[in-house]
Specification:
- A hairpin with a 7-residue loop joins strand 6 and strand 7.
- The strands form two sheets. This protein has an eight-stranded mixed beta sheet. An eight-stranded mixed beta sheet has the order 6-7-8-5-9-12-11-10, with helices on one face.
- Helices cover about 25% and strands about 35% of the residues.
- The two termini are about 25 Å apart.
- The chain has one domain: 2,3-Dihydroxybiphenyl 1,2-Dioxygenase, domain 1, CATH 3.10.180.
- It is an alpha+beta fold.
Length: about 260
């Protein structure tokens, strides 16, 4: 399993270009920025097509890497992936668009499916295999579409989650402490009155943050008692500078930390 994961990450790095890295926001003082969402689907082509229709740009080398301002979407084939975001610790993800009416018209013509109660400036799309994607209009947006936020449903006080992300990743907490922000993404937490499951094994398997000086950062977190699902390691040659590690937050969201997805030598 570990070998397969390393091969998978090698493919991610080799397929990434300077364009993909340029999509990410500059890191915060902790060296952290939004990186990617990693999806596993029984029909990866259909899910990949959904995000391209949404406005993402496929990477020049890898068709399963879709680029948006602020984040990359990775879609891989897996027959064991089971369950969309509903009922998961990550209930939905969100994008902002400059013109909701125009975007909706384009997506309707392409056959994308909406949840009920679409408003004049926001609504929820449902991807193949059940990823809930909120769309919000922002007329001040510099691009037609950009990644905006991750919305967590947890069985805990949202302030506890916000504080954990602030202390662990240097996220800036909102005024009411129920949310936090990293470059390229807002993290929104809502207490769920019904049970939710961890993201691992779902279609949205994990989220990813990109980190400067990852090895030192992980040592700092480990010294504070943070437990890692997969310890720091580098990809094998020829991609010698890319590193990664996995951790799960206390409420079940799997998080990949990466450094140097371009794999520069």
């Amino acid at each position: 399993m570990k070998t397969n994961l390393i091969v998978l990450l090698c493919a991610l790095v080799i397929g990434s270009s300077g364009t993909s890295y340029a999509q990410l926001a500059p890191p915060n003082e902790s060296g952290m920025t939004m990186g990617h969402l990693h999806l596993f689907a029984k029909n990866a082509d259909a899910l990949n097509k959904f995000f391209i229709t949404l406005g993402g740009k496929p990477a020049s080398i890898r068709p399963d890497l879709v680029l948006f301002p602020g984040a990359a979407i990775v879609v891989r084939e897996s027959q064991s992936a089971n369950g969309g975001t509903e009922g998961s610790a990550v209930n939905h993800v969100a994008f902002t668009v400059k013109n909701f009416k125009a975007s909706k018209s384009t997506w309707d013509a392409a056959g994308l499916q909406w949840e009920k109660d679409v408003q004049s400036n926001r609504g929820f799309l449902i991807s193949p295999e059940g990823i809930r994607v909120e769309i919000i209009e922002n007329k001040r947006l510099a691009t037609d579409i950009a990644f905006d936020h991750i919305h967590f449903f947890i069985q805990a006080n949202p302030k506890d989650a916000s504080t954990w992300y602030a202390q662990t990743f240097g996220a800036r907490q909102s005024a009411d402490k129920t949310g936090a922000e990293l470059p390229g993404v807002r993290l929104t937490f809502l207490k769920s009155n019904t049970p939710v499951v961890a993201t691992k094994g779902r279609v949205l398997d994990h989220i990813g943050f990109d980190v400067k000086n990852l090895e030192d950062y992980i040592k700092t977190l480990a010294a504070r008692g943070i437990k890692f699902d997969m310890a720091y390691q580098k990809l094998p040659k020829p991609v010698t500078t890319t590193a990664f590690a996995f951790v799960t937050d206390p409420w079940g969201t799997s998080i990949e930390l990466t450094q140097d997805l371009e794999g520069k030598k």
